[in-house]
Each structure stands twice: as structure tokens, then as C-alpha cells.
Design goal:
The chain has six helices and seven strands; from the N terminus they run βααβββαβαβααβ. With 164 residues, it is of the alpha+beta class. It has a single domain, classed as Gcn5-related N-acetyltransferase (GNAT) (Aminopeptidase, 3-Layer(aba) Sandwich), CATH 3.40.630. A hairpin with a 2-residue loop joins strand 2 and strand 3. The termini are far apart.
Amino acid sequence: MIRKCVAQDLPAMYEIINDAAVAYKGIIPADRWHEPYMPLDELRNEIADGVEFWGYETDGRLLGIMGIQNRGDVDLIRHAYVRTANRQGGIGTMLLRKLEQMTEKPILIGTWTAATWAVRFYEKNGYRAISRAETERLLRRYWKIPDRQIETSIVLASPGWKGG
């Protein structure tokens, strides 16, 4: 079942993010990796900044989460993670489809360029990579991330994206 995450889900969300993010270790630039990958305070700050998390739950246990953030003329998909033990089961796709149904606006997704599995996942689901110049412009406009992360990230756009 897919449902909106609530405050009581914070420990499970933290666990999911930091379990799944281990895949980035040794892949993303070493200066961007830290443990935990997302501290609890950072997760709380993301929620306070408007990231609304949805989770896939089975037998009372969250197995995956994905956030959506309203940024005016677009929505961003943020922090999409599935527990390592539950990957390749369609959970990410189900969460993505749910969030897509929640908006009529274009959707943008930022991820690490080196996370080729994530890029392939979004491309398989109809998103297309944006040019390097447009990626940098969009990351500066819609995200609150450091320059170093901008240098090493990619933006993918939903079908029909016309730029903006």
C-alpha cells in the first residue's frame, strides 16, 4: 500500500534512506559522501522545506519512500529510496506513478550523474536527461544544494517538458 508518511515514520524513513544510499559509496565523489548519508536533522529540514514523503508499506513496514516538492511551476521528485533488500520489485515505479498522479505540472528529478542505475530507472519510466547547461540552471533555480553537488548531478524531466 502507498500512503503519505507521517511524523511517526521518521525513524523508518531515516533507516531506508541511509540503507539505500550505501549504493552511492565509492560511486559519487568522495567529498560528497558522508555517514550517515542523510542525518535525521537534514531529513527534518527537507520536510520543513516542503518535501512531502510517500511510502510503500507492506505488513506494517515501510519498504520505500519518495518525496515530492512543489516549486511553483514545477514539482520535484526528491529522495527516492527503496530498502536494499527490496529493490527490483517495482516499489520505486509504484511510488513514482503515485506522485505523478498527484500533479499536472512538469516534474524534474535531480540525481547524481554517476548513479547510472538511478538515471536508467528514470529514463525507463519516460524521463529524459536535460543538457548540461540546462541542468545547472535548473539545479540553481529549484534546488538548495551546494555548487559541488551541482557539478556532479544530472536533471531529468518528465515527458512533454518544454523548458522554463
